[in-house]
């Protein structure tokens, strides 16, 4: 008997509504839910491929322990939890609680909360997000300094009502297709919104743009300052808003004079006329929304670049108005209950100050990881660096840092140094292959989940669609169990996933089950605009206004106004080195097929792109004797002696001096290698995790490094 | 004239593959056949600017279908409502229909050794539902309905675009 169940996909962070067909207890089909207010039926290939993931023969289906000879032995859950608890206890006794760390990155954020629970109960401050230096942090902190709250990430832009959409250093059509990506297209095609795309690559989004600015990688700050120059000097800014709601405009006006469009054109390779045209288009088509992402943050000038783009929103007054960038809608479930962001913070606040101050990164980056850090987490590279020196000795990992973190070989060595490593995942990932114990995780289809990460003003509830594939478990249950076995108390009276879900919805006056019966998967709230008028201030900035000039930055020794810095390597900084390494290197643009390291096992997805690819301009390739489909080596000066292999895709959509390689490539089918050939085509082997760093976040040069490309012979 | 029509507004397509995987789900297809497939053309230089086109390709259910004429086993046939169907019992997998089709719409299923062809989700139409690719398309570039309605709709869309009306 076929039954269709309503749920919410968690294949990435989008939280798209889905209709799941279940036949004889098995999921056979997943399509978009036309009644879900966010995706309205749209869905991407990742979500639709989950039936292939659920029943894949390679999916981890029971706990395993690695034997001294390297082979994996099946063990029971009871044995696994016993081993983990005993080993963790032993490490705490021998080396203290700070020898243990919890490591996370993408995926369902609920698991962070639960693991932070045991982590803080033992009094270890080592909560490590392996993307902490560049993912959401620079956006959040730059937005926070400027507006008091975050509004440029996925949740901020109100595309549906925009007359102009500016997408900077990201491609929602690859990364957030069902949710935000389709909203952009609808605004453009149904309502005639203008679209400006800043990207070194001619992406599918760029191909739909009214203006595409092909920026030189890592020079985005100059471009934003050039656009501000045009907007301010041509008096296209919102004078009323600027006068009433901002501080530091005169200083900003002075600063942008250093960035006239002709000079910016030289720095960024974007023609002067296009810079002016884009600035005018953005400033004169109000309301306009802006989204900037990792193309902007994965470099050594991340904070200033984010700030520069933010100020475009500020001076045009596109703030918290329909179609602009929205200040966060207060979490309908209550601030404390919003698991994704506030919980790690609250938990970490339970740590004594001196323990908290021993987090990695606090000493080196006191502003980015302590004062301005909303999550109380650590700098992951510095934390991993501590492993060979006897710092962290045991880890519980729920993601794949060998693929996701820069300097993959170094990361793998660090993991080998650990005394004890537990990895929980769907697959035997490269990181899992270094573990002592691997635990099989349940997917969103097998878990009861509450959602409100990307939604502007709704709460979602997604009961599990099927019982977990035997022995796969909800990560949250596992961490509750671990806490109990360690003999620890929770900060909250939450002893099961059910209690947790009910607790999160408490303020709405319903339990998890009641919510679903009453409202289905989504409950919508009325969105409020111009909340700052109600409060008569921007809560969160010291002045209560939008800080074009940031006193906080000044007090902490940083430039209070955005500025541009040449990337530490490149045609201007290191012209000699460019003789040998002639390409600017974008490492790891995302594709809709694969969510980070996931999906290469799934036949439907792998068919669409079987090999790791690098985009090269045909002219540049011809000079190197490289044809479309040839395998090539990529080498960088920062990782001498290392090289990674990609298939050349020749495209006019990339500048002759720039190349772009896929991220997160490993080969799950290569079972001859215990680590699944995870160093062969992994960009992070040649992208080092070491300085030069962004001075605030400690982000290395990830997009905007340099490299050489040679044909693989034979 | 065929009663139903599926048409793509090519200008809107982004090449995200959602239609392709939706179709694979609906018809339980293995690696290989793609009864709807997006062909990417470009990026290439046109009038000094780059342009990429994404064109969804699927059976057009021709009035006088060359695939039907090419099939030696009479496995392909046209329903009274105009939908071209494959009779899998009769299909021998010779693939002459693929050769005959101007856009290679028929797809070979290596697991069955038979042809797969877009049938506009005939089983869904019967229930008053749209083809699955139309429902999931994030770009909303696929239009399905009675042929006259779709023709009218597409004409409106294109005219709006040509005259730049908003």
Layout of helices and strands, plus pairs?
The complex is a heterodimer of chains A (about 725) and B (about 170).
Chain A: E1 2-8, E2 17-23, E3 26-32, H1 45-48, H2 50-54, E4 64-66, E5 72-74, H3 77-95, E6 100-104, H4 110-121, E7 127-129, H5 137-147, E8 164-168, H6 172-175, H7 177-191, E9 194-198, H8 204-207, E10 211-213, H9 220-233, H10 239-245, E11 246-247, H11 249-256, H12 261-268, H13 272-284, E12 288-292, H14 294-297, H15 302-316, H16 342-348, H17 353-356, H18 366-371, H19 380-385, E13 394-397, H20 401-404, H21 408-417, E14 420-425, E15 437-440, E16 449-451, E17 458-462, H22 475-485, H23 497-505, H24 512-519, E18 522-524, H25 531-535, E19 546-547, H26 551-555, H27 575-580, E20 583-589, H28 603-608, E21 613-616, H29 618-623, E22 631-635, E23 644-650, E24 658-662, E25 703-711
Parallel strand pairs in A: 6-7, 6-13, 8-9, 8-12, 9-10, 11-19, 13-14, 14-15, 20-24, 21-23
Antiparallel strand pairs in A: 1-2, 2-3, 4-5, 4-15, 16-17, 17-18, 20-25, 21-24, 22-23, 22-25
Helix pairs in contact in A: 3-22, 4-16, 4-22, 5-15, 9-12, 9-13, 9-15, 12-13
Chain B: E1 4-8, H1 18-27, E2 37-46, E3 49-57, H2 66-70, E4 76-78, E5 84-86, H3 96-100, E6 107-109, E7 114-116, H4 122-126, H5 132-136, E8 142-146, H6 147-162
Antiparallel strand pairs in B: 1-8, 2-3, 4-5, 6-7
Describe this structure in words.
The complex is a heterodimer of chains A (714) and B (166). With 714 residues, chain A is of the alpha/beta class. Chain A folds into three domains: 65-130 and 335-440 and 470-504, Rossmann fold, CATH 3.40.50.740; 137-328 and 539-555, 3-Layer(aba) Sandwich (Dimethylsulfoxide Reductase, domain 2), CATH 3.40.228.10; 575-711, Barwin-like endoglucanases, CATH 2.40.40.20. Chain A has 29 helices and 25 strands. In chain A, a hairpin with an 8-residue loop joins strand 22 and strand 23. The longest helix of chain A has 19 residues, at 77-95. The termini of chain A are far apart. In chain B, the strands form four sheets. A two-stranded antiparallel ribbon of chain B has the order 1-8. Chain B has one domain: Alpha-Beta Plaits. Chain B is globular and about 50 Å long. Chain B has 166 residues and is an alpha+beta fold. Chain B has helices at residues 18-27, 66-70, 96-100, 122-126, 132-136, 147-162; strands at residues 4-8, 37-46, 49-57, 76-78, 84-86, 107-109, 114-116, 142-146.
């Amino acid at each position: 008997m076929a039954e269709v169940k309503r749920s919410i996909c968690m294949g990435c962070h989008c939280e798209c509504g889905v209709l799941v067909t279940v036949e004889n207890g098995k999921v056979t089909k997943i399509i978009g839910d036309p009644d879900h207010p966010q995706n309205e039926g749209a869905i991407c290939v990742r979500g639709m491929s989950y039936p292939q993931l659920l029943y894949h023969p390679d999916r981890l289906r029971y706990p395993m322990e690695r034997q001294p000879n390297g082979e994996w032995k099946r063990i029971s859950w009871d044995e696994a939890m016993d081993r983990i608890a005993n080993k963790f206890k032993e490490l705490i006794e021998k080396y203290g609680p700070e020898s243990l760390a919890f490591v996370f990155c993408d995926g369902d954020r609920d698991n962070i909360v639960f693991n932070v629970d045991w982590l803080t109960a033992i009094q270890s401050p080592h909560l490590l997000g392996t993307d902490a230096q560049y993912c959401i942090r620079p956006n959040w902190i730059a937005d926070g300094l400027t507006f008091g709250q975050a509004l440029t990430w996925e949740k901020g832009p109100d595309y549906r009502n925009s007359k102009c959409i500016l997408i900077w250093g990201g491609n929602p059509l690859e990364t957030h297709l069902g949710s935000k990506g389709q909203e952009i297209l609808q605004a453009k095609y149904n309502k005639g919104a203008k679209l400006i795309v800043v990207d070194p690559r001619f992406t599918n989004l760029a191909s739909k743009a009214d203006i595409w600015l092909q920026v030189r990688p890592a020079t985005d700050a100059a471009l934003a300052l050039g656009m501000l120059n045009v907007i301010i000097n041509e008096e296209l800014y919102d004078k009323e808003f600027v006068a009433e709601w901002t501080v530091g405009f005169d200083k900003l006006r002075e600063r942008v004079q250093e960035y006239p469009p002709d000079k910016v054109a030289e720095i960024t390779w974007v023609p002067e006329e296009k810079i002016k045209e884009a600035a005018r288009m953005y400033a004169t088509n109000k309301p306009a929304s802006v989204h900037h992402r990792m193309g902007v943050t994965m470099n050594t000038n991340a904070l200033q670049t984010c700030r520069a783009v933010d100020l475009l929103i500020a001076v045009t007054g596109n703030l918290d108005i329909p179609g602009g960038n929205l200040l966060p809608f207060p979490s309908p479930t209550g601030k404390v209950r919003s698991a994704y962001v506030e919980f790690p913070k609250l938990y970490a606040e339970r740590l004594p100050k001196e323990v908290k101050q021993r987090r990695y990164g606090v000493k080196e980056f006191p502003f980015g990881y302590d004062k301005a850090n909303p999550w109380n987490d650590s700098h992951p590279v510095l934390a991993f660096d501590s492993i060979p020196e006897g710092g962290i000795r045991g880890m519980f990992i729920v993601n794949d840092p060998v693929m996701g973190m820069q300097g993959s070989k170094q990361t793998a060595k660090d993991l080998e140094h650990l005394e004890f490593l537990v990895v929980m995942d769907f697959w035997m990932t490269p990181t899992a292959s270094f573990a002592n114990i691997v635990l099989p995780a349940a997917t969103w289809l097998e878990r009861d989940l509450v959602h409100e990460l990307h939604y502007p003003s709704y709460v979602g509830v997604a009961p599990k669609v099927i019982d977990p594939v035997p022995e796969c478990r909800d990560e949250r249950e596992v961490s509750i169990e671990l806490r109990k076995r360690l003999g620890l108390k929770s900060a909250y009276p939450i002893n099961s996933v059910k209690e947790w879900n009910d607790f999160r919805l408490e303020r709405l006056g319903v339990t998890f089950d009641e919510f679903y019966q009453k409202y289905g998967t989504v409950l919508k709230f009325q969105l409020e605009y111009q909340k700052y008028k109600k409060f008569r201030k921007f809560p969160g900035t010291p002045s209560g206004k939008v800080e074009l000039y940031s006193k906080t930055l000044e007090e902490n020794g940083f430039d209070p106004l955005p500025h541009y810095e040449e990337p530490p390597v490149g045609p201007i900084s290191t012209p000699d080195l460019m003789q040998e390494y002639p390409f600017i290197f974008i490492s790891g643009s995302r594709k809709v097929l694969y969510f980070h390291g996931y999906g290469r096992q799934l036949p439907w997805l792998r068919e669409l792109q079987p090999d790791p690819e690098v985009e090269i301009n045909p002219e540049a390739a011809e000079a190197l004797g490289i044809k479309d489909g040839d395998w090539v080596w990529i080498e960088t000066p920062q990782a001498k002696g290392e090289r990674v292999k990609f298939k050349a895709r020749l495209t006019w959509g990339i500048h002759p001096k720039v190349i772009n390689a896929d991220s997160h490539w490993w080969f799950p089918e290569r079972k001859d290698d215990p680590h699944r050939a995870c160093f062969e085509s992994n960009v992070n082997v040649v992208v080092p995790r070491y300085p030069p760093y962004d001075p605030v976040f400690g982000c290395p040069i990830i997009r905007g490094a340099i490299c050489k490309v040679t044909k693989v012979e034979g | 004239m065929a009663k139903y029509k599926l048409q793509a507004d090519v200008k809107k397509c982004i090449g995200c593959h959602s239609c392709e995987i939706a179709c694979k789900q609906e018809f339980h297809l293995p690696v290989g056949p793609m009864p709807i497939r997006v062909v990417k053309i470009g990026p290439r230089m046109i009038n000094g600017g780059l342009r990429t086109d994404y064109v969804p390709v699927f059976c057009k259910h021709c009035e006088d279908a060359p695939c039907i004429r090419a099939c030696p086993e009479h496995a392909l046939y046209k329903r009274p409502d105009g939908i071209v169907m494959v009779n899998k019992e009769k299909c021998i997998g010779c693939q002459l229909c693929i050769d005959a089709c101007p856009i290679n719409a028929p797809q070979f299923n290596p697991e069955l050794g038979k042809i797969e062809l877009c049938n506009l989700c005939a089983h869904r139409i019967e229930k008053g539902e749209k083809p699955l690719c139309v429902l999931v398309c994030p770009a909303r570039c696929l239009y399905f309905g009675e042929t006259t309605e779709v023709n009218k709709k597409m004409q409106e869309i294109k005219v709006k675009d040509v005259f730049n009306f908003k």
